[in-house]
Amino acid sequence: MADRVGTAEAVARGGAAGFWHAWLVRILPYAVALLAILAGWQLSALLFPAYLIPPPRKVFSRLIEELGRPAFLVTLGRSFYRLAVGFVLASALGIAIGLLCGIWKFFRRAVRALVSILQSVPPIAWVPLFIVLLGFGDAPIILVIIIAAFFPMTVSVMNAVEQVDGLHLDVARVLGADRAQLVAKVYAPAVVPAIVTGAQVGFGNAWRSLIAAEMVGGVNVGLGWFINFAGEIADMTAVLAGILVIGLVSALLDGLVLERLKRRLLRWKYL
Amino acid sequence: MAVIRKAVWIAAVAYLVAGQAFAAEKLRVAYVHVFDDAPVVIARDKGFFASEGLDAQVTMFTSGPTLVKGLVTDQSDLGVLGFTNAITWAAQGADLKIIGKVQEGYHSLVARNDRGIKSLKDLKGKTLASQAAGSTADIVLKGVVLKSAGLTDKDVNIVYTAPSTALASLRSGRVDAAFLFEPYDSIAKASAPVTEIYEIGKVWPFPCMVVIVPGRLTRERPEAVKKSLAALRRSMEFMKEKPAEAARVLAPSFMAEEGLAMEGKTIAPEEIMLKSLKTNIFDWRLGKNDLSRMEELTGVMKTLGILKEDVPLSSVVDLRWQTELERQKR
Known about the structure:
- The complex is a heterodimer.
- Chain A is built from 12 helices and no strands.
- Chain A is mostly helical.
- The N and C termini of chain A lie close together (12 Å).
- Residues 1-6 of chain A have low confidence and may be disordered.
- In chain B, 49% of the residues lie in helices and 20% in strands.
- Chain B has helices at 2-22, 38-45, 48-51, 64-72, 83-92, 136-148, 163-172, 184-191, 200-203, 215-220, 222-241, 243-254, 269-278, 288-303, 320-329, and strands spanning 25-32, 54-61, 78-82, 96-104, 108-112, 127-130, 157-160, 177-180, 194-199, 207-214, 260-262, 265-267.
- Chain B is globular, with a radius of gyration of 22 Å.
- The mean pLDDT of chain B is 88.
- Chain A binds chain B through residues 49-52, 128, 131-132, 135-136, 216-220, 225, 228-229, 231-236, and chain B through 63, 65, 68, 72-73, 85, 88-89, 91-94, 127, 129, 132-135, 158-162, 164-165, 168-169, 172, 174-175, 306.
């Protein structure tokens, strides 16, 4: 709401001043959050020996050093690849199943029962089983990400489908819409906000599960593996550099990709 | 009346003083849940810590690198874990001391019979399951085992996983080979179509599990250090003298109660434990050969990039209590 007011005010003012005000409104919360984290971190670094909690300055310079190493870039690239494949598949599957629930009541009940049983299982708990079933490598990690992102998306879309106005459905049917057309013309547009919400929650879950799965999933490349390995050899500077990357990448993807996507899809809400 | 009151006071003070003197000293002991740390389990379950005057609170960890964090943050007083943990943390500035040995590194490299792996060289291009990257086992695997066959970690697809998962993957054929310690090694040989192609303990014996304490403990509570080492020595002597009884004591901590079921027959947990005891060497003393192996492995750690600079072994190893106990024994 505040965001909308800020944007509206900026539009009303117009010109360069308005642009900078809007920019500040968006950036300021991130800056405050970052400063709070840095302050807490620096304080901890003063209380503990440097081999346990290295100061931010040391970690930032290590991060810059790592970003210049091809091996670290390969590590990052592999994590992004797993995240992208898993998240896209989970989202597509979640949207498709959520929409199917709208037109098929029995299917909806069955899916709801399945979701209530399975969504409480932490995705990481599946890792040992998936390794035995699928072998080592990307497949078990991607499957863990799919599970992590699938449930928020499915539940979100399913709930939105249940709330579609009956009048809209009746009108469409009277006009001769069949089941496929109902899905495409009535349900799909109505569930767009739910898809955005599901994607944002699912992305957070997927990101967390990716790191955890890479830590225990028997892979030897990836951000989770990098942090785990650094912890094994007492390199806390690298551990914190890895954590920093997770936080920064997550904030960037959420702020630049998902938030922009939300604004584009729900343009009518932000006018 | 005054005499009686005085006598009561003297008795009360004497009771309190005696109580203080005989109260067991508290010690937070940590061990890794691997068979290599069996002496800690024996010392706990057979009451050897208590008979040395220690009230040991024994905590189990799933990995050495997790355990060592407890030692450097003052949450544990003593740990039995891979010696490379002490070296890596000492290199970062932590004050840790190795005061004795527990076990020589017995790790088997077992390969599935249907993968054509007859020697280490045949591992090229194969998938090998091992313990956590950066652990003592991993350092030995890369820097000693593979190197002896002219291989590097680039030639073999090493997958890092828990030993139980490595075992399951070996059985299901998801990996071609695995680098395992006891009891997983004995279980693998008993339950999967595998053959041992290498045993580090036979080819390149080295001190794997050692007793590590924070430097603070050696300065502030030297008697507790001595008592703990004495308790572990009793454990290892007991394991050597009465292996069958030791196997019975250890079974509940390392095996499922029902034993290992395979091809219609069941192998009792005690039997697996006994086999594991026979394939391991437990010793409480760090000898000259051990120290030179530790020097070699420190060099390997530097070659692998785990250590950025040299860590003199003399700054980490403190054998005062070992020497004292050896002298007492004579």
